[in-house]
Specification:
Blueprint lengths: L2 E5 L2 E5 L5 E3 L12 E2 L7 E5 L3 E4 L8 E6 L4 E4 L1 E5 L2 E7 L2 E4 L3 E4 L13 E6 L4 E6 L2 E7 L2 E2 L8 E4 L2 E10 L9 E13 L2 E5 L9 E3 L3 E3 L1 H10 L5 E5 L20
Parallel strand pairs: 13-23, 16-21, 20-22
Antiparallel strand pairs: 1-2, 2-3, 4-15, 5-8, 5-12, 6-7, 9-10, 10-11, 13-14, 14-15, 17-23, 18-19, 19-20
């Protein structure tokens, strides 16, 4: 927003495009930021995406410790177990949390098949995390939001082909265009799969969940860091360890992705 006026008790703001719109109540963008590394961590780690209760052992029938992890708090993961259809993470002595309200970064410096060079971005759709690797080391990791079914973020191996510090995004997914959207100056956008992009968001976001029309959404600070680090042609490896995301290329024919 580059200007603001009051008319008949209502606020209007002028956008970079020159148009005026009535202002809605102001909200603040998310301040969460991921982690930058000087060397690869020795164990997996992650974050809570909602307040997560701590149990003394894996499983919801195990005794609770009376403690919890706040939303977006960092956790170290020393062991993984299965119970009650969820992964459970050992985050300290006799302290376990469920993957229902936490997300895990699987540290793996193995170069994905097909990647040439020593730089790639990994997007884990099951864990809602993004990791950046360079010269055999993990250099960055954070939480993301990805495509809300049926507008999935497509698994596969891609390359960044366009980059914009700020760019408008607009479109619709329904035939009657009732879900048309127009977003001014979407920050730090990198297109890698047709209309799918990695970009920052200045609107309300729930990191660690499906939310977008197929794009990979990051908090602004993370999008800024990744944009400064990445280059045209860098590889983007999108994987879903759960196997729940369609992989058939025919599914994505004619599907227009968006923010």
């Amino acid at each position: 927003m580059i200007d603001q006026v009051e008319v008949d008790g209502k606020s209007f703001v002028r956008l970079e495009s020159g148009g005026w719109v009535q202002a809605k109540p102001i909200y603040t963008w998310i301040r969460f930021q991921g982690l930058v590394f000087s060397h690869t961590p020795e164990n997996d780690f992650g974050w809570a995406v909602d307040e997560a209760e701590i149990y003394s052992a894996p499983g919801y029938n195990s005794p609770k410790t009376g403690k919890s992890i706040p939303k977006y708090e960092l956790i170290q993961i020393y062991q993984v177990a299965q119970a009650d259809d969820y992964e459970w993470y050992l985050i300290g002595p006799n302290a376990w949390v469920s993957s229902h309200k936490t997300r895990r970064v699987i540290v793996d410096t193995t170069k994905p098949e097909g990647v040439t060079g020593d730089r790639w971005i990994k997007i884990d759709l099951a864990n809602f995390t993004l990791s950046a690797y360079e010269d055999g080391e993990l250099v960055f990791a954070t939480l993301v939001s990805t495509g809300l079914p049926p507008m999935y973020t497509r698994p596969g191996l891609f390359q960044i082909y366009e980059r914009y510090e700020a760019s408008p995004m607009f479109g619709a997914t329904r035939a009657d265009r009732s879900d048309y959207y127009y977003l001014e100056a979407v920050p730090w956008t990198m297109y890698y799969d047709d209309t799918r992009a990695i970009h920052g968001v200045y609107w309300p976001i729930m990191l660690g969940y499906n939310q977008s029309h197929g794009c990979v959404n990051l908090a602004p600070g993370d999008a800024n860091w990744l944009y400064a680090w990445a280059e045209l042609g860098d590889w983007v490896y999108v994987v879903d360890p759960s196997g729940k995301t369609p992989t058939d290329p025919a599914y994505y024919l004619g599907v227009t992705a968006g923010p």
